[in-house]
Amino acid sequence: MMEALKPYILSFIPLFVAVDAIANIPIFLSLVEGSSKTQRHKIILDAIATATAVAIIFMFIGRWVFSLLGITIPDFQIAGGALLFVISVRLLLPGAQKSVLTSSHDKDMGVFPLGTPLITGPAVLTTTLMMMNSFGALATLVAVVLNMFFVWITLVKADTIMKVIGPNGTRAYSKIMYILLAAIAVMMIRHGIIGAFLK
Predict the structure, then answer these.
(1) Residue 49 and residue 38: Cα distance in Å, rounded?
(2) With a cut of 50, which residues of the chain have pLDDT below it?
(3) ∠ Cα 121 91 164 (to 5°)
(4) For the segment 59-96, what is each residue's pLDDT rounded down to a tens digit?
(5) 72 secondary structure, DSSP code
(6) Alpha-carbon dihedral angle through residues 155, 38, 167, 48, given to the nearest 10 degrees
(7) What pLDDT score was predicted for residue 14?
(8) pLDDT at 55
(9) pLDDT for position 40
């Protein structure tokens, strides 16, 4: 029984770390500040639908696109890590969160930036490709769906989670998460450089 579940568990855990649902809560709450309950639910549904669709589509066509363009996984890790690092550094700037992450089309914030790149970003896309290669399509697909379900729960219960942490805790937590995001970005770049130049 455990042997049969092993590919699913091993696919789920790396994706869970990459998605990092809890870290998105402070950003989500700042983006939906002033929105009605109906608007908030629509934003959540848009975000989850976008994040899931992007992850699944990329899971099946990612390697084909890379092959077509002559892009390697290390190339993607370096580029994705650089993008993630820029986002994390800008988020660390005081008062920059909303101006960095939103465009003039607030009605589309569930698609961008929540759906992508915050939920399904470079780290998730890269991890999805790795899990697909290691454990197959079914295990990776199940892992993606379960992780997105967990993200949905955390966004729906975001206010409750933040009340437990408190305002000061929320600010401290978000800053720590942005620093960790920067560290993950550096790790991706490092792995990409090792894979590209130091094989």
Answers:
(1) 17
(2) 98-100, 102-105
(3) 90
(4) 999 888 888 989 887 887 788 778 778 877 877 776 55
(5) -
(6) 20
(7) 84
(8) 95
(9) 93
CA quadruple 145, 150, 153, 155: dihedral sign: negative
Report the phi/psi class of residue 84: left, alpha or beta, with left for phi > 0 and alpha for psi in -120 to 50.
Answer: alpha
Q: Check residue 130 and give its pLDDT.
A: 78
Domain spans in the chain, listed from the N-terminal domain onward: 36-197
User: At 149, which amino acid appears?
Assistant: F
Instruction: Name the token pair of 119.
Output: 């939920």
Neighbours of 149 (CB within 10 A): 11
How many angstroms separate the CA atoms of 125 and 127, rounded? 5
DSSP conformational letter for 80: H
DSSP 56-71: HHHHHHHHHHHHHHT-
| Residue partners of 121: CB distance under 8 A and separation at least 6 | 80, 83, 84
Integer Cα distance of 183 and 189 in angstroms: 10
Angle of CA points 65, 53, 12, to nearest 5°:
90
